[in-house]
Amino acid sequence: MRVAVHTDIAAPRQRVWDYIVDPDRHRDFMDGMTRWEVGGAKRTGLGARISMRMQVGSVELGGLIEIVEFDPPCDMAWTSITGVDHRGRWRLRPGNCDWTDVELRVTYYAPGGILGSIADLVAWPIVRGHLQRSLAELKRRVETRPRVRAQPAVVKRQHRTARVTKARKR
């Protein structure tokens, strides 16, 4: 089954990219994600491996995934190494002004012939709901992330006592 969701985020593409490629942030915004742990020395980028699980009904589905495409700040794709057979992709495209069009696609296949196909159909609305809520949370977090404030201009102040003293001398 294939699930694709997208949203527009009012932030530059690089800021969104920095957020989604950080493995420490995934469980903060990914709905239903019960595990997202780096499975080796490489934390991000091509060849990075991550142990992931998503709650689908009463079952945690997932396994070990590997990043197979990494094109900053546009595309990141993964495929399963163990566990449920699935693939996924983040696509970030520039939108109007400083907006970013974000798409998250996941394709998965449950084993088991006809029963596996039925399981796919039952899981589809749950997985879609998780992905929709994940993008909504990503949008909220990236758009409300505190921006670096510009340093205020330094203004030299005159001391009142100096002005008062000068005025009294006249």
Shape: globular
CATH class group: Alpha Beta
Biggest β-sheet: strands ordered side by side in the sheet: 1-7-6-5-4-3-2
Count of DSSP strands: 7
CATH architecture annotation name:
2-Layer Sandwich
Mean pLDDT: 87
Which fold name fills CATH's third level, the topology?
A: Alpha-D-Glucose-1,6-Bisphosphate, Chain A, domain 4
Largest sheet: 7 strands, antiparallel
Overall number of domains: 1
CA distance, first residue to last residue: 89 Å
Please count the helical segments. 4
Helix content: 25-40%
CATH superfamily: START domain
Task: Give a description of the structure.
With 170 residues, this protein is α+β, with helices and mostly antiparallel strands. The chain has a single domain (2-149), classed as 2-Layer Sandwich (Alpha-D-Glucose-1,6-Bisphosphate, Chain A, domain 4). The protein is built from four helices and seven strands. The protein has a seven-stranded antiparallel beta sheet, with helices on one face. The chain is globular. 19% of the residues are buried.
